[in-house]
Amino acid sequence: MTEKIPLQYIADLSCLALEEDEKKALAADMADIIALMDTIKDIDVGDAPITEHISGVRNIMRDDAVSGSMAAEKVLSNASVRLEGCFVVPKLME
Amino acid sequence: MPYLPTIGLEIHVELSTGSKLFCGCPVSFGGEPNSRCCPVCTSVPGTLPVLNRAAVQYAIKAGLALNCEIGLFSKFDRKNYFYPDLPKAYQISQFDLPFCLDGYVDIELNGEQKRIRIERIHLEEDAGKLVHDGLDKYSLADYNRCGVPLIEIVTKPDIASAQEAKAFVEKVRLCLLYAGVSDCKMEEGSMRVDVNTSVRPVGTDELGTRTEMKNLNSIRSIVRCIESETARQASVLDSGGRVVQETRRWDDNKGESRAMRSKENAHDYRYFPEPDIIPAEFTQEQIEALRASLPKMPHERYLEYTGKMGLPGSDANQILESVALADIFEDAAAISANPRTSASLIIVEILRRLNDMGLSPEQIPFDGAALGKLVKMMDERQITANNAKKVLTLMFETKDSPDKIAKDNGFAVISDVAGIKSVVSDILKQNEKAVGEYLAGNAKTFGFLMGQCVGALSGRADPQVVRAVLQELLQKGQD
Amino acid sequence: MAALDMTKLTIKSAHDLLAKKEIGAVELTEAFLDRITAVDSDVCAYLTVCAELALKQAGEAQKAIDAGSGGMLCGIPVSIKDNICIEGVRTTCASKMLENFIPPYTATAAGRVMDAGAVVLGKVNMDEFAMGGSTETSYYKKTKNPHDLSRVPGGSSGGSAASVAANLALGSLGSDTGGSIRQPAAFCGVVGLKPTYGLVSRYGLVAFASSLDQIGPVAKTVEDSAILLDVIGGKDQYDGTSIEVPETSYAASVNAGVKGLKIGIPRQYLASGLDEAVKSAVLNAVREYEALGAVAEEFDMPSLKHAVPAYYLISSAEASSNLSRYDGIKYGFRADGCESYGELVSKTRAQGFGREVKRRILLGTYALASGYYDAYYKKALQIRTLIRREFERAFEKYDVLISPTTPTTAYKIGENIQNPLTMYLADIYTVAVNIAGLPAISVPCGADENKLPIGLSVIGRPFGEADILKTAAALERALCG
Predict the structure, then answer these.
(1) Higher pLDDT, B455 or C11
(2) Fewer CB near the terminus (10 Å): N or C of chain C?
(3) Is B299 helix (H, G, I), strand (E, B) or coil?
(4) What is the pLDDT of residue A1?
(5) pLDDT tens across C318-359, in order?
(6) Cβ neighbours of residue B179 under 8 Å, at least 6 residues apart?
(7) Which range marks the domain in which residue C285 is found?
(8) What confidence tens digit (pLDDT) does each residue in C463-477 have?
(9) Would you state the pLDDT for residue B262?
(10) Of the candidates C379, C381, C421, which has its C-beta nearest A33's C-beta?
């Protein structure tokens, strides 16, 4: 038995403003999908550790060298709104 | 009812690496917005972080300087939340396997020592800056600071007063300065403190509900905020209310805090192992090599300065404020074998000049050996104290050694009495009228003549000797 | 030479003709651009055709060839999946969210291909953010299977596979997170290779699931795949998960043969749910291998049955995080008329992402959320360990493993799109390879009664690309004579 998914909570965490009918459709999809995911709940994994990283290697790091930054206009080139060399964010509700 | 506060701190410190944590953009302060950015630190799709080895070493050095255990296996995790200063909408941080664990710092307050335990230190990336000023409907986002390496030092709730918090933060700051991992400039935001405060009635052990005050950027505001929050919580409890667990914002201008509105799910960060960064693994030998690379920590130096070097505690602390001063002091004291004069030249003369010139101790243009040489010249009476100060001034202007400066400028002491006598006797000849007045019993004229002689010798002779010569020659004139 | 249709060449044969000056690089590129104009309105493989860039690159390639400095890829026209960035060329990930996104930098793999003299014809269609198996979740268009235009080309690299199968490119770069190169290659009757995790740089590949994604080649032949892999593989300083491997020539390995090769066939991969035609083609391939001197046997890999849910939990969790950056502020779609930051972000995302992407984001957020993490995400990572261990054990005994690439041949457009669960379960033969970070190649091994292609997958040890290439090439030779 799959427990009811807290869809509104998950949508809020995901920052998705879902319309009512879309939410209904997604709730139905998600119920099916979660039922498939729930099949792993009963699997006995013993004391298997999690895979921390898929490649077994360690310590890939770079030297502390400064390389050039981009011109500010290029940094902003894909923003649909920009002002005074900055990205523009509507007022935050704290 | 009287209450006792319990305080824990989270100190964020920007590391002074050359480049950012995950890309080659430079780490520096100020400048045009979005001028130190690249596709990686502005989260352009498809980009990947590549870990800066120096940042990892700095984080570990910070841990060693604060007496931490270093985890031989560490990894990074993603902390997910939406906020416009965080372009990826996740912060690369460390969750369950940070680089440093279980450290401590001993603080001294009113002559008593207390140990404040450190729970952990982890490495993470800094966020950008939002500018709100003067804009009504919008904020502007500047990502220059995005990806600057940051360590977060988390204490146990061992701090029992605002003064302890102050002493702790100052001590941590000093240790990190000595470890060479950060400039710890609170006014530039490279060191920022979150304060968790709760209160409990005197005589009970059970901790109260805590509140969190974020991003305090001066020692003064830390002290005021703790005092204010302790009083606020006490009055809430006294009036029968209960303290709400919340994040509050401190307004340093008003000297008060207010609760921040926050969404209920704001704290579900959904940490998971960062797949873009391979875990780090160290050997004990590598850790020991980093430990060996650390300079002596300030508390160790304090004991040396006030012990065999004989400095008063206040002088020792003043020198220890800056690694550059401490290093200059130690070299000067070693060369001159005179720690006290070395210290007094630093504290009185050098600090004043730095202040006048608007320089920091790191910008002193000469080294400790040069200062030690000057002290030695004073001790060997090759130069008067007054001229030593003049030499010091010139040491800020030229690259020359103090003895060359003294020689070039005629500051070297005239030590032969015959030479002094000939100068004084010339002065007496030029001032027959004054000599006559003196001989007639006007003792005040002696001061005038003395001034003339010192002036003519341009301070190069010991004033005691000049006075004796002058008296001797006047005496002769009387006879 | 008048009768030669240059678009039907392979990379190898085109290279030989270019080197012998029997054809020119510009004329080769023009032939492809002409064919795209003529045919792609039916196949719908391309989202962006870069005619100007392509002709310029072809001109430069010809100069290199004339100077005698051109390598195997010099002058070779290719397509690039639209989630691989090229500076200045629109990169959409087939999403409304990135409709006008112009990358300010170039992906390492794309850069290496271009540096080798390859000509980029354009950017090809895919499932939105690579989430899907039919290229039907693209916001822009539905790509058709060149073998039957009423059917899907597979996905998510459907544009890559269709462009190669329809002679609209000599090769393509795709990306594979759970089968996204191999499955469309199987559906379109071409060769698709998913490299070992860490062999090819992911820098510039718009992330779907970072611990699973790899860029890989799609081509007409095994040898062509190897030629592409030779160019794109190898350590990259901009990808902290890319791994140093010894210099090797994959192209040189394809003719090594399979005599004495030990082949394992996971029994779970021949179980129920598999189309009879697919099963018989795979078993026929096994007989071909045995005839060529290889030894094949079935064996058990019990944890494989958990691979699909584990894959969807891990990939969706990572995707939910990777796709959080799309907030309307820095790039891409920005919803109109929003008064607060929260409104802007949540409306931008609701309007900019398609339904399948939202499902994955919701699933991934759920799997990571407080109170659910242990049951879903952590458990999935433990299963990941079990699957890796089973593969490790298998490779103690076998040199390569083989399986069907897909349970069915290409299905009709619209047939499954309403049922995400059916689509997810169809990934059963491909996802375990990504979970374990292994290399695998899909090579054509026959056709069903509708003449729709069937693909065979060959799975290798980590960095065992040479093994799977020679195994796939042996079958290719055996079947094509």
Answers:
(1) C11
(2) C
(3) helix
(4) 39
(5) 999 999 999 999 999 999 999 999 999 999 999 999 999 999
(6) B58, B61, B62, B64, B65, B294, B295, B297
(7) 1-481
(8) 999 999 999 999 999
(9) 61
(10) C421
pLDDT of A2 > 60? The answer is no
DSSP class per residue in B381-413: TSS-HHHHHHHHHHHHH----HHHHHHHTT-S-
Task: Determine whether C160 is an active site residue.
Answer: no
Answer yes or no: is A69 within a domain.
no
Is A89 within 8 Å of chain C by CB? yes
What is the torsion angle, in degrees rounded to the nearest 10, for the CA atoms of residue C131, residue C134, residue C140 and residue C146? 150
Domain that holds residue A23: 7-40
Chains that touch A (3 or more CB pairs under 8 A): B, C
pLDDT tens digits, C192-220: 999 999 999 999 999 999 999 999 999 99
- What single letter denotes the amino acid at residue C204? G
Query: End-to-end alpha-carbon separation of chain A, Å?
Result: 39
Looking at residue C2, what is its pLDDT? 54
Half-sphere CA count of B321, side-chain side, radius 13 A: 12
A4 to chain C, any CB pair closer than 8 A? The answer is no
| Model confidence, pTM | 0.91
> Which B residues 241-260 touch A at CB under 8 Å?
260
Chain A (36-75) residues lying within 8 Å, Cβ to Cβ, of chain B: 50, 52-55, 57-70, 72, 75
Considering the domain boundaries, does residue A18 fall inside one? Answer: yes
The number of helices, as runs of H, and strands, as runs of E, in chain C is 15, 11
Is C96 one of the catalytic residues?
no
Whole-number Cα distances in Å, C47 to B45, C123, C136, C140: 18, 6, 13, 8
Spell out the alpha helix ranges (H) of C247-373: 276-291, 307-322, 341-352, 355-368
Give the distance, in angstroms, between the CA of residue B433 and the centroid of all CA atoms in the same chain.
59
* Spans of chain B, pLDDT less than 50: 264-265
Residue A88's closest chain C neighbor by CA? C329
Residues 6+ apart with CB under 8 A from C154: C133, C134, C135, C145, C161, C183, C184, C185, C186, C187, C188, C406, C410
ipTM higher than threshold 0.90: yes
Residue carrying structure tokens 């460390």: B94
- DSSP letter at C140 equals S
What is the rounded distance in angstroms from the CA atom of residue B266 to the CA atom of residue B78?
15
- Between residues 209 and 248 of chain C, which touch chain B (CB distance below 8 Å)? 209-211, 237-241
Which residues of chain C neighbour B272 with C-beta distances below 8 Å?
Answer: 317-318, 321, 368, 373, 377
Residue A85: the pLDDT is 94
Q: B17 touching A, CB under 8 A?
A: yes
Strands (E), B94-223: 100-109, 112-125, 129-131, 138-142, 149-155, 191-201, 211-216
Let me know if residue A11 belongs to a domain. Answer: yes
C206 reaches B (C-beta below 8 A): yes
Amino acid residing at B13: V
Q: Measured between beta carbons, which residues in chain C are less than 8 angstroms from residue A87?
A: 329-330
Specify the pLDDT at position C1: 47
| Best B47, B95, B261, B277 residue to mutate vs chain C (most C CBs within 10 Å) | B47
Given C95, C134, C180, C201, which residue is catalytic?
C180
Q: Which of A46-55, C310-319, C454-463 has the lowest mean pLDDT?
A: A46-55
The structural domains of chain B, ordered by start, are 3-285 (no CATH), 296-408 (no CATH), 417-478 (1.10.10.410)
Between chains, do A53 and B137 touch, taking CB under 8 Å as contact?
no
CB-based contact, C207 to chain B, within 8 Å: yes
Q: What percent of chain C has pLDDT over 90?
A: 96
pLDDT above 90: residue C300: yes
C156 tagged catalytic: yes
Q: Is C384 in contact with A50 (Cβ distance < 8 A)?
A: yes
Q: Which pair of structure tokens corresponds to residue C213?
A: 């994604």
Is A21 a member of any domain? yes
Residue C101 has pLDDT above 60, yes or no: yes
- CA dihedral of B353, B356, B358, B363, whole degrees rounded to 10: -10
